[in-house]
Amino acid sequence: MKIKGGLRKWYFAYDNNKRASKDYDDAVQIFYSQADKIVRYIVRIGKNHGLVTINHWANTITETVPCEYKSVEYKYPYSNTQIDVVTHENLHGVYDKDGKIIIPAEFDSIEKDVNTYIVSKDKKFGAWNTEGEEILPTEFDLVSSRRRGFTVKKDGKFGFYDIDGKEIIPIEHDYIDVFDTAISTKNGKFYSLYDLKGKVIVPGEITGFNGKPFGIEVYRFDKTGLYSNDGKLLVPVEYDNLTYKGDYIIAKKDGKQGLYSYTGEIIVPVEFDELSLIESIVSIPSFIVRKGNKRYCLRVENLIPENFLTKLTKKLAENGKADEVVGKHEENIALEIDIKDVTEENKDDLY
Questions:
Q1: For residues 297 and 351, is the Cβ–Cβ distance under 8 A?
Q2: If the chain, 351 residues long, is cut into consecutive pieces of 10 residues, what is the mean pLDDT of each piece?
Q3: What is the C-alpha separation between 347 and 40, in angstroms, rounded?
Q4: Is the pTM value of this prediction over 0.85?
């Protein structure tokens, strides 16, 4: 099979010279696959353009795209080929590499994402998939393709649809943003957080948020708290500051400090003037706290190894303090150390 020319005309013919196409004014090769033995040409008759495909394996010559368009643009890589066409009325459409119409040539613009097309007509937007199916009708003021679906805008409000065109977040919000695992909406000064199926994670009572590996830190004006990624309130939104140390959260409020676990359990009540992490004594976190003029070494179950407690008890015994166990909070044992008994020589052993 071949292309032949003469008298300023071009046509395609089989190996026996049998004509297989009409005459064209021009034909330009734009694609060749050695493996598949496929050759493609952009062809022209007057001001009309089309595309012809020669398949040597199948012994066929096909006008894949009719020669009737103002322009034809062949885009590949081969595995994801599309053919963009524009009519003489400047309307856009898309064919696949085999000549199937994916999107009819009736839109003002078409923008390709990985697996979707955003189309516009008369300043309205919609979405199609690569199989030629309409996902969203062309009725929105804005459509933005996201990894998990589409952010849409209509009448000044935003919403979210999934990749199949199902409404996940109603179009009733001032602003919307989409993350890998969550969707945020904003109305006035307040945010809400949803999962990708539209379930509320954090209700619209927060003025800001910050994603963490272990949850979502949220803010309500000058107060902060923590939610899990599935919407469980771990730390109430009432603290001045949260600091993350090892397996624990230091919560501060009105000059007092305490400890939470990442499951939301109160480990140390928020009632101490100081709370310090000790990393030099053991490889896992331990804490020294102060209330007034008293310091305490707090033992949380499995937190401080027994050999350290033995060393601490011995030092306290030297100061006559070993028998003073001054408090217990669930599994926490507080050993009292009076500040006046702490010297430069023993402070590293005591706390």
A1: yes
A2: 61 78 89 89 94 90 94 72 91 93 96 89 96 96 91 97 96 93 92 93 90 89 93 94 88 93 88 74 59 70 44 51 36 42 48 42
A3: 83
A4: no
